[in-house]
From TrEMBL:
<dbReference type="InterPro" id="IPR014748">
    <property type="entry name" value="Enoyl-CoA_hydra_C"/>
</dbReference>
<dbReference type="Pfam" id="PF00378">
    <property type="entry name" value="ECH_1"/>
</dbReference>
<dbReference type="InterPro" id="IPR029045">
    <property type="entry name" value="ClpP/crotonase-like_dom_sf"/>
</dbReference>
<comment type="similarity">
    <text>Belongs to the enoyl-CoA hydratase/isomerase family.</text>
</comment>
<keyword id="KW-0456">Lyase</keyword>
<dbReference type="InterPro" id="IPR018376">
    <property type="entry name" value="Enoyl-CoA_hyd/isom_CS"/>
</dbReference>
<dbReference type="InterPro" id="IPR001753">
    <property type="entry name" value="Enoyl-CoA_hydra/iso"/>
</dbReference>
<protein>
    <submittedName>
        <fullName>Enoyl-CoA hydratase/isomerase family protein</fullName>
    </submittedName>
</protein>
Length: 266
């Protein structure tokens, strides 16, 4: 599945069941250009179709994670004749492309190796977990560019860090450093070591879990957003499904035999 080094997105397999997707345009700080968006969609399609994928790690090449949406086409007059309605028709597919980690059936980890700006923060928030290097920085300076936030910023930020802190990030546009991001819940870990290696280690551990149960748990967490009763209704379906799998028996046997389970996803 690995792509050539000149491609806008690289996909590798650093461990069994783990896929690593690297945004590969460091010269523009991995901005979400049209080229990058097309390459991202193609890569996500391939990863989603790969039944061996159990966990995905997303990172950026070079010193930045992602500098956000590329708006240079607006400054070049390309949008001069576009109405707000036509721009909306352009933005919605763009939003949905970059929020695809949210709808993938397996966990996604953002290995934030450097600054994440604007929509780059939203990309990280679309992932299930976020790990930050000590060089990471998070900022959402949309209004200081004269634009409203996009890519789910007004929903994803409050979900992750609460309304008050989301307001601070959106109103001030200031940079949030890794330790503060950890205290806020914007990230779940800060690592001094190579952040990609750290994230791959976590992903490898997650990939050892029963894959059917892992996928259903991700869906269950989404369902639980509707409240306790919705969570119970989902669990009353999902848990019996896992109880009919060979993986359940393997897990029980492995525990009895004091060994690591070997789950096959069936």
């Amino acid at each position: 599945m690995a792509a050539g080094s000149g491609d806008a997105v690289l996909v590798t397999e650093p461990a069994a069941g783990v896929r690593l997707l690297t945004l590969n345009r460091p010269g523009v700080r991995n901005a979400m250009t049209g080229e990058m968006t097309a390459a991202w969609d193609k890569a996500i399609d391939a990863i989603a179709d790969d039944r061996e994928t159990r966990v995905l790690v997303v990172t950026g090449e070079g010193s930045s994670f992602c500098s956000g949406a590329d708006l240079s086409w607006l400054d070049q007059g390309a949008a001069q004749d576009l109405t707000a309605d036509r721009l909306r028709d352009r933005m919605l597919p763009f939003y949905r492309s970059w929020l695809r980690p949210r709808s993938l059936p397996f966990p996604v980890i953002a290995a934030v190796n450097g600054p994440a700006v604007g929509a780059g923060v939203c990309l990280a928030l679309a992932c299930d977990l976020r790990h930050a290097s000590t060089d990471a920085r998070f900022s959402t300076p949309f209004i200081y560019l004269g634009t409203h936030g996009g890519l789910g910023a007004t929903w994803l930020l409050p979900e992750a860090i609460g309304v008050s802190r989301a307001r601070e990030m959106l109103y001030t546009g200031r940079e949030v450093a890794p330790e503060e991001a950890l205290n806020w819940g914007l990230v779940t870990a800060v690592a001094d070591e190579n952040i990609v290696e750290y994230s791959v280690e976590v992903a490898t551990r997650m990939a050892e879990a029963a894959p059917i149960a892992l996928r259903l748990t991700k869906t269950g967490l989404e369902q639980a957003a509707a409240g306790l009763e919705a969570a119970l209704q989902w669990e009353a379906v999902a848990q019996p499904i896992t109880m009919t799998t060979a993986d359940l028996h393997e897990g029980i046997q492995a525990k009895r035999q004091h060994r690591a389970p070997r789950f096959e996803g069936r």
